[in-house]
Structures are given as C-alpha cells and as structure tokens.
C-alpha cells in the first residue's frame, strides 16, 4: 500500500497529481485572471445581446454565457457558480419553471468540459497518457462542442415556443457600443491570442497559459 500510494504512478506523487499541480493549475490561474479582469461581465453582456430578445431568451443567455465561460474556465462547477448567480435568478424573475432554469444552467455549464481552447481537466490527462499534442485533442473536441451547444440551444428554443417563455426586457439589455468597447474586448482577444500563439508555435501547454496570462496583464492594465 505504501509503495502504491507514495512511489507508484497511481499514488500521491503520480502523473494525475503532477498534471493537476502544473498544467491544470496554470489554466485555472489563466481562466480566473481573464474572468476577473472584466472578461466575465463582457461574456455575460455578449450573451444578453446575442440571444436575449429571442424566445426563451433568458435560458439562451445562460447557454451562450456558459459556453463562453466554459471556453476559458474548463470547470463545470465554477461555470455554474459564476454564470448561474446571474442567469438562474433572471429566469426565475421571468417566471421560467425553476427545475427548467436549474437544468439549463447545469447542462450548459457542463459543456465547458469539451469547449476549446481550454477544455476540462480530463483533456490534459488525455494528452499526457496518449502522448498527443494538446492542440490535436482540442481540435478533436471542437465539433462535439459545437453540436452539444447547438443541441441545447435548439431544445431551449422548442421548449420556449411550446411554453411561451418570455424574452429578456429591453431595459436589461446592454447596448452594443457598451459591450464592444475596446477596453473590454482587447484584453480578451489578447489573452486568447497569447494562448493560441503558444499552442500553435509548439510551446508547452504551461508556457502557452503563461503567454495568455502575460497578454491579459499587459493589455488590461494600460486600458484601465
């Protein structure tokens, strides 16, 4: 037992813990930094503008926002805790059934596990076990992620039509000029650009996350 726990690959100092302490930790830091430097509010406002006025708008906002958050967080729990604090009360306020509101947020947030570029923790373990590049695994997840969120979106639309679910009121929608302000968009694009540069140039996945963090800081501080 001691040998398995402390000396083998399956124990405390094994591969899984090593991936969590290096690769996953770097991406958790990247996602948190991006979301808490304004990316979270920007993603939410984008979701409101994109889908707020269509049937079942509040549920579609939850789907779009959870998809955007999932791309940079890779954690279903963190996704629900972040976007759900806004989307679930909004759906309840518009008289959506409570189980429906909770189910939409939970399902949409789960999709972040297969949403590139960050995916969930399992993707890093897959890359380590299979010996494949993280880029190849992320590209393989792109089509399933699109189909997943398309399926959720269409299902919500059909349920909203049948149950006559309300749209989001105009006074709760931000203007496009507010959403697309350079100081809100540039840090997000720069962070994702730094991440993609690292991955496409063949750098390690930890170094790619560092590039994303660096670009977030370099663009966020001057614009504020």
Please write the string of helix (H) and strand (E) elements. Answer: HHHHHHHHHH
Shape: globular
Low-pLDDT stretches are none
The total count of helices amounts to 10
Q: What's the structural domain tally?
A: 1
| Residues in β-strands, percent | under 5%
Query: Could you state the oligomeric state of the chains shown?
Result: single chain
Helix percent reads over 70%
Radius of gyration: 19 Å
Helix-strand makeup class: mainly alpha
**Mean pLDDT over the residues:** 84
Query: N- to C-terminal separation?
Result: 54 Å
Count of individual beta strands: 0
Largest sheet: none
Would you kindly provide a written description of the structure presented here, covering whatever features stand out?
The chain has helices at about 1-5, 15-50, 55-75, 75-95, 100-110, 120-130, 135-165, 175-180, 180-200, 205-224. Helices cover about 75% and strands about 0% of the residues. The chain has ten helices and no strands.
Summary keywords:
77% helix, TRAP C4-dicarboxylate transport system permease DctM subunit domain-containing protein, cell membrane, mainly alpha, DctM, globular, 224 residues, single chain, 10 helices, transmembrane helix
């Amino acid at each position: 037992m001691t040998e398995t726990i402390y000396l083998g690959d399956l124990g405390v100092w094994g591969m899984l813990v090593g991936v969590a302490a290096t690769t996953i930790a770097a991406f958790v830091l990247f996602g948190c930094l991006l979301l808490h430097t304004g990316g979270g509010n920007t993603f939410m406002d984008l979701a409101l503008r994109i889908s707020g006025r269509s049937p079942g708008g509040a549920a579609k906002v939850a789907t779009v926002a959870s998809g955007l958050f999932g791309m940079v967080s890779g954690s279903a729990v963190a996704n629900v805790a972040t976007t759900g604090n806004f989307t679930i009360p909004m759906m309840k306020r518009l008289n959506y059934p409570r189980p429906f509101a909770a189910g939409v947020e939970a399902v949409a947030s789960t999709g972040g596990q297969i949403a590139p570029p960050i995916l969930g923790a399992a993707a890093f373990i897959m890359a380590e076990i299979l010996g494949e590049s993280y880029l190849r695994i992320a590209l393989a997840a792109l089509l399933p992620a699109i189909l997943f969120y398309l399926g959720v979106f269409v299902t919500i639309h059909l349920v909203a039509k049948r149950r006559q679910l309300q749209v989001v009121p105009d006074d709760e929608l931000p203007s496009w000029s507010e959403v697309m302000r350079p100081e809100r968009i540039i840090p997000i694009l720069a962070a994702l650009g730094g991440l993609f540069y690292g991955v496409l140039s063949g750098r390690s996945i930890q170094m790619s996350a560092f590039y994303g963090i660096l670009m977030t800081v370099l663009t966020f501080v001057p614009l504020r």
